[in-house]
Design brief:
By secondary structure, the protein is of the alpha+beta class. The protein is 40% helix and 20% strand. The structure holds 3,4-dihydroxyphenylalanine. The site of 3,4-dihydroxyphenylalanine has 11 residues, from strand 9 and strand 10.
Amino acid sequence: MSMDAGTMTMLEGLDALRAEIEASLREAPDLRALDEARVALLGRKGRVTDLAKGLGRLSPEDRPAAGQAINRLKAEAEALLQARRDHLAAAEMDARLQAERVDVTLPARRRSAGAIHPVSQVMDEIVAIFAEMGFAVAEGPDVEDDFHNFTALNIPPEHPSRQMMDTFYLEPEEGTVPFVLRTHTSPVQVRTMRTGKPPFRVIAPGRTYRSDSDATHTPMFHQCEGLLIDRRTHMGHLKGCLIEFVRAFFERDDITTRFRPSYFPFTEPSAEMDVGCRRTKDELVVGEGSDWLEVLGCGMVHPKVLKAVGLDPAQWQGFAFGMGIDRMAMLKYGIPDLRTFFEGDAGWLRHYGFSPLDLPTLFAGLSR
Ligand code: DAH
């Protein structure tokens, strides 16, 4: 069979192209380069495609053989392409597996150094208990004015408890009454009653400040205030509410309690609540025994306080209470020295701290 010269050149060109294709596909360094090579050869404007388009220029006798040769080349190129693709994909996977290798025999990582501070834990516990009884959380500023911290709470300027409280005063502006760092959370009672509408049922946990420092006192400490105002509230409600609280807080139903008469300017009558305890040489068990531990102050809100916030004492009355959160934490979790709370010692926190994932709830257990 004789071919014309054009066909001969074309078929020779095919051999050269085959060699070129083999080389370019074999050397493609990665899948992207391989794909670029594929487009350059077999794409719509690729070189093999161009060749096929040139078939029309050949003589009709030569066309079938030339067409077959081009198809063969195309098939070979596709096979090479696929082989290279498989090879490169496997290599890429190997590299990735190598890079993302996990040594499962390595020892487990240490528990992170962070933990929930006992003060935060106890605050969350207290909030959980009172929330269940329908109390909302109220807040007030740490820097408080004289009216909210003292006067509205029936503590006039000459009142001795102003001295007792070792107040931190801020530098006053010329001719004004100085602001104070709040000495207790009781001013939040005043803020709540002045801005809202009765009935009220709030607790107010937060920071408080007094110029005092020893094993049981720090200049900054934490309190939680409670306030309930309604039309027919009496001392029985106060006792029921607080007995229920200490039961839930110390997580024992058989806890013994007693109320001792006391004095606070903002309540009348006033009382202090104790829980039973047993002290041994190096242990303190809360809830049983013949000793008593004071846990909070409380009383019926003084009519003068109600008047100071614009409530009519003939219509509205209620009870209030205040407790030291740090002290509650020490009692519940057996932490001996208050000052360690504020030293920021990571070892101490690891020992006394709580897991951030265990939120205190009454149904799941407060401290588990
Ligand atoms: N504010 C008092 C204190 O810091 C605690 C207190 C006592 C608060 C009796 C009250 C209360 O609301 O009724 O010592």
